[in-house]
Design goal:
Belongs to the AHA1 family. It comes from Couchioplanes caeruleus subsp. caeruleus. Residues 15-135 form the Activator of Hsp90 ATPase homologue 1/2-like C-terminal domain. The protein has a single domain (6-137), classed as Alpha-D-Glucose-1,6-Bisphosphate, Chain A, domain 4 (2-Layer Sandwich), CATH 3.30.530. It has three helices and seven strands; from the N terminus they run βααββββββα. The chain has helices spanning 18-26, 28-35, 114-137; strands at residues 6-14, 38-42, 49-55, 61-72, 76-81, 90-99, 102-111. β5 and β6 form a beta hairpin.
Length: 138
């Protein structure tokens, strides 16, 4: 992620080994379990496509898609998401760092406007909450 704009970075340490956290982000059926997404397809490699339909509270269905730009197994995942009205995809970066049986997770994104950033940051916090709950019962 380069450029200027409005960025957020979220960091959490999860009570799960890095391989479990990696699998939660990169295995379609596991991702669907903790995000509540439907119709999830992943081709986790640079240039590989992904898609899902997020079901948000209230039942609205939001189709999402994009491509992976960087994949370093068990360490780093960077993917773009196609956003209507934008020429360039919005990139999200996930960095993982093993700490024994725990994993430090860092999510970051950059946006052109503060409002976009704030909405994405709220959504990412909700994702990390869901991931934390999923891993506690996995």
């Amino acid at each position: 992620m380069t450029g200027t704009g409005f960025e957020y970075t979220l960091t959490r340490t999860l009570d799960a080994p890095v391989d479990q956290v990696w699998a939660a982000w990169t295995t379609a059926d596991r991702y669907a379990q903790w995000t509540g997404a439907e119709d999830v397809t992943f081709d986790v490699r640079p240039g590989g496509a992904w898609s899902s339909v997020m079901v948000i509270p209230g039942g609205a269905r939001i189709p999402l898609s994009g491509t992976y730009t960087e994949v370093v197994p068990h360490q780093r995942l960077v993917w773009g998401m196609t956003v209507p009205g934008r020429e360039e995809p919005v990139l999200m970066t996930l960095d993982l760092s093993a700490d024994g049986d725990r994993t430090k997770v860092t999510l970051s994104q950059t946006f052109d406007a503060a409002e976009e950033r704030d909405q994405a940051e709220q959504g990412s916090n909700m994702l990390l909450d869901s991931l934390t709950n999923y891993l506690a019962t996995a």
